[in-house]
Amino acid sequence: MKNYRLISILLTIFIFACSSSNVSEPEAEITQSPDPKPEEIENDINNPDNVDYWDNAELVWSDEFEGVSLSTENWALETGGNGWGNNELQNYQAEGNTEVSDGTLKITAKRNTDNTIEGAFTSARLNSKQSFKFGRMEIRAKLPEYKGNGTWPALWMLGSNIQSVGWPACGEIDMMEYVSFKPNKTHFTIHSTANNHTNGTEITSGAVDLESIEEEFHNFGILWSSKYIKFYVDDIENVQFMFRRPTSSTVENWPFSNNFYFLMNIAVGGNWGGLEGVDMSIFPATMEVDYIRVYQVN
Hints:
Elements: H1 2-21, H2 38-42, E1 58-63, E2 75-78, E3 90-92, E4 98-101, E5 104-111, E6 121-123, E7 125-132, E8 135-142, E9 151-159, H3 162-165, E10 172-177, E11 185-191, E12 203-204, E13 208-209, E14 218-224, E15 228-233, E16 239-244, E17 260-268, H4 270-273, E18 285-296
């Protein structure tokens, strides 16, 4: 009986050894992501060469200025003088410098002739009560008729966290800036802690020719994703300037992943607007805004 058990055990070991020698471990499966299909590239918001993606964007907020007064649900007016950090000359008022009529918003800078209001000039500065992150932002506007030097209208955005982190840490996106000593031109600029005008490191398009900027309405817009901000005029295909997110991005050089709100104003004089003086005869000066719209892809 003992011999039989021994033979049985040896036979079992032999069979197991033979079967084990013929079994190999499975190789680790290596997978590679396939190259993206053309339609996937077209639908990629972060592909900076893609404009077709934005055709699918839906309107999520707008002000068409069709009423008879400025919407208090959409806008707050900042007030005061103090130069606004740029040695500007205007005193922003809550009344007297804005009008909604005939389907447009009029923002008017005026020369103060009766000396009843502090400062030589009055104007308006509007802040949107809504803020947004990423999307297609567009403002259709016509700038003041060119008469001489001294006005500085702007359509722009600031980071909503400005109260907690300050400027320029909050970030600034200038969708359109114009100084009247450079007629027929517009500028697009990005400001951050790393790059801003106070130390001459702002990232800007420079002067972009737009011959009818003072005579006709134009669409000033941005295409804004987590990877880039593209500035266009009139059509999304007409990109004039693009800022790509730095490869080594930080809050100092890319504060543009937070919510931003809109501003619209006309400044008078200042470090840039008054660089070649202020012509006292050009006032009143009015910027008209036809609409402001925000589109996003769900």
